[in-house]
From TrEMBL:
This is SecA Wing/Scaffold domain-containing protein. Residues 292-301 have a biased composition (Basic and acidic residues). GO terms for molecular function: ATP binding; metal ion binding. Its cofactor is Zn(2+). GO terms for cellular component: cell envelope Sec protein transport complex; cytosol; plasma membrane. Residues 23-234 form the SecA Wing/Scaffold domain. SUPFAM superfamilies: Helical scaffold and wing domains of SecA. Gene3D superfamilies: Helical scaffold and wing domains of SecA (1.10.3060.10). It holds the Pfam family SecA_SW. InterPro entries: SEC_C_motif, SecA, SecA_Wing/Scaffold, SecA_Wing/Scaffold_sf.
Amino acid sequence: MRLFGSERISGVMDRLGAEEGEVITHPFITRAIEKSQKKVELYNFGIRKRLLEYDDVMNKQREVIYGRRNSILDTDDLDGMVHGLIDDVIDQVTEGFMPPESLPDEWDIGGAASELETIFLFKFDMSVLSEQETKEERAVIDHFRAEARKAFELRKSMIPADIMLQLEKMIMLQSIDEKWMDHLRELDNLREGIHFRSYAQKDPLVEYKQEAFQMFSEMVDDIDKTVLWGLFHARIDSPDKAERRRPRREVAMHRTVDAYAATQPAREAKPGPVAPGADIGPAASSAGTRPLQREEPKVGRNDPCPCGSGKKYKKCCGQGS
């Protein structure tokens, strides 16, 4: 009532002198309470609806990503998907070096070829294109795609089919998972501050949808390029090479106890404990170590110092002992 009721209600309640907890049965008050309840319900419904619209943006993107993951997991032939990634990445690269609305003289075909060569690790032969074809965007893109497919077929010929399939699935799934988690964090950060757009007379939900779509498109392009980079740069070793490259810890072993004893240096015999009643002769006593004997008389702490200073030993040479 305080938030959604009119000021007339509070004035009427004050004039009637109604106390807190008193039962109100007047029709006017009852209708006012019903209107306030409807306003509260509409307000809460608007909040829930707004939150649902924000969540729906992320949910649609999630459906696309998980649909792509499921298609990777359910198939045993990913060559068609790789060919699609090749076409998409080539379109991305050529768009940067050959803008759609630019003139052929402004194109940097060599720069596009160099960047593609770093991705596919394959030399793109541009000499087969005529001068006229270098001025046609479609001819250049088709040539890039043909060269990239040659690089992919060469890569497949170097790796067994079963290992290649595992490699494709591992790189695709790992790239999607990493980029998707980063994208979710960025969406959370965007959502926390998007309401400030309302100060510029802009709808925060519309702005959020536009920003989220742009971020999602960039994430998909980044996934495609990361997958191709991993496929062509991954290092596959045979079991023999992997075994040779594995660090080994050398352990010295001796076949017999005598061989082990022969490698040990000779040790001097140490006298052990003497059994009670054993005969200790001169030979036995000479084998043991003799106790140290003092050659000069012991100097007391309060005796004159032997150095001749006239001070007590504890104040002179015996200080700190």
